[in-house]
Amino acid sequence: MKSKRKTHKRSQAGFTLLEATFALMVNTMVLLLMVGGMEVIRTSNSQMEKTQDAEWHLFLIQLEHELEDELLVQKASTTIRTKSIHQADTAAYTYEFRINKVLRYKNGEGYHPMLLHVKALKYEVTNEGISIQATLSDDQTRRAHLILPKVPI
Questions:
Q1: Which residues contact residue 85 at a Cβ distance below 8 angstroms, ignoring those fewer than 6 apart?
Q2: Which helix (H) or strand (E) holds 21?
Q3: Contact indicator for 104, 81 with CB cutoff of 8 Å
Q4: Per-residue pLDDT of the chain (153 residues; tens, 9 = 90+)
Q5: d(CA 57, CA 75)
Q6: CA neighbor of 96 nearest in space, from 119, 75, 127, 73
């Protein structure tokens, strides 16, 4: 009789110290993996934002350089058309937001991708030139204003 009572008491005793230590180690490992994963995500988001900033500034430098000798001919919310100031140069350029990219067309043929991973883009004509507002894949909105003369009417 005594041996049955001892077994019965032992099964209701709860966790042993070894079982509690093992459970604590498993919980600690899971938490460490979660913190490490969150750090990787934070680092990759930071890197993506730096890359998007570099691409945005490169796009603006290239666009500003290309628009130096051009006049604004036509504007839509996601497209601008320009022509050269020089009479001898008859080329017309189109800068269009399409399929998550800003594309540059010369005389409506072919295209040159100027900015990739664009979620939204809007051109707005001001008295001095063009304002550009773009939301890139990192969900940050970037704005710029470029001086561009208009075709005299």
A1: 69, 70, 71, 149
A2: helix 17-66
A3: no
A4: 555 555 555 556 677 888 889 999 999 999 999 999 999 988 887 887 888 889 999 999 999 888 888 888 888 889 999 988 888 888 899 999 988 999 999 998 889 999 999 999 999 988 888 899 999 988 889 999 988 776 654
A5: 22
A6: 75
Backbone angles phi, psi at 2, to 5 degrees: -60, -40
Select from 104, 97, 100 the least CA-distant residue to 65. 104
26: helix, strand or coil: helix
For the entire predicted model, the pTM comes to 0.68
Residues in the chain: 153
Q: How far is CA 142 from CA 36, 80, 96, in A?
A: 31, 18, 17
